Amino acid sequence: MQAPTTHLALPFFDDVHRDLAQRLVAWAPEQHVDEHDDRAACVEWVRRLGADGWLRYCVPAEHGGALDRLDSRALVILRETLAFHSPLADFSFAMQGLGSGAITLAGTPPQQSTYLTAVASGSMIAAFALSEADAGSDAGAMTTSAVRDGNAWLLNGEKTWISNGGLAHFYCVFAKTDAQAGTRGITAFIVDADSAGLDASEHLQVMSPHPLAVLKFNNCRVPQSEQLGALHGGFKLAMQTLDIFRASVAGAALGMARRALEEAVAHAKQRKMFGQTLADFQLTQARLGEMAALIDAAALLTYRAAWLRDDGERRSSGKVRVTAEAAMAKMTATENAQRVIDMALQMHGGMGVKVGTKIEALYRDIRSLRIYEGATEVQQLIIGKAVLQG
Length: 390
Ligand code: COS
What we know:
This protein has 390 residues and is of the alpha+beta class. It has three domains: 6-125, Butyryl-Coa Dehydrogenase, subunit A, domain 1, CATH 1.10.540; 127-232, Butyryl-CoA Dehydrogenase, subunit A, domain 2 (Beta Barrel); 235-389, Butyryl-CoA Dehydrogenase, subunit A, domain 3, CATH 1.20.140.10. The chain has helices at 15-27, 38-51, 72-85, 87-106, 109-121, 234-270, 282-316, 323-348, 358-365, 376-389; strands spanning 126-129, 145-149, 152-163, 170-176, 186-192, 198-203, 212-223, 227-228, 272-273, 276-277. The strands form three sheets. It has a four-stranded mixed sheet with strand order 1-4-5-8. It has a four-stranded antiparallel sheet with strand order 2-3-7-6, with no helix packed on it. β9 (272-273) and β10 form a beta hairpin. The termini are far apart. Bound molecules: coenzyme a persulfide. Coenzyme a persulfide is lined by residues 130-131, 137-140, 183-184, 235-236, 239-240, 242-243, 321, 323, 372-374, 378, 381-382.
């Protein structure tokens, strides 16, 4: 099954995006990765995505990237197309971007040349460590601390729900450098996975398997040269990174929803019932119509957010904030995808809940997207604040 491409004719996209999509739509169905072991599968996906050049879209050209800047529309197309085929492939791709995004935005030249080139080739796996047990949506409430110790920092505390935890070669970690200053007392650090005092051995299991772990920092020593961005500038850096990748989460949700619709259409056309096919029933046609409209509504918000960011970068190098538009895209695309997949599952009847079918897997795969990188309720808050500010 090939991912649809008609939407690429929309004016949001340039030839570079159409070319990327055309190549990727042909590449993705050729990849057959055994995903029974999620950790091994992610390592294999990163290897393939790196070898065939797709990870180059996670970093700017200066450091081995495919395009001059991180391009939101390219990220959306990549995630949408990969998620259509394999949510784990999408995840592996996305984490290379999210895990290195803060280095692209704020890294020193030596940090950028050490990490970004390796991320682009797939020789290093990246991770983003923000969440804590008591600081998920309220990211500013984190308690992991970083205290200066001579020419280094000592990190103590615990991060959780860390994607690629235990697989990554390095983590972008956000920690309190001033416990009293709230969001203005957080600094980012690059922590190599083999640092003494870092334990990533506790793995977490979730309903749609992907590699997650708890990171425990116990007097973990991080050299000054690995401070990422400005002292106390970590919260803004995390938010700016999320601004880029939230629109791409919307892209992933879109890919899963498009796959569910394709599966539903194929099923409805061949399933015989009461002397006709399922597709002959008006009830089915109405349902498919609703699914298609939910997908297009999500797609337009997603492409708008990505286009606005790319256009703002081109015209004013990141001075334009697209936080609310990215939040609208993430919220709408993930919520709509959940509804579309649920409708597709219902249409499949018993086969929809049979373990091992594509629809059953999608039903589990989509769920966490409504939670990670800012739950739907956080997106509502962000949008609401923006509306009030006018
Ligand atoms: N870009 C740049 N700066 C930003 C920003 C953004 N997108 N979002 C917030 N900031 C700045 C604000 O301008 C403010 O700056 P000043 O201190 O100079 O005024 C500062 O950051 C604090 O912002 P705010 O007051 O809005 O922070 P809150 O603590 O109220 O938190 C939310 C805001 C809820 C939006 C934030 O905590 C959030 O996004 N939470 C979800 C975290 C998340 O996605 N976790 C998942 C991790 S990855 S799986």
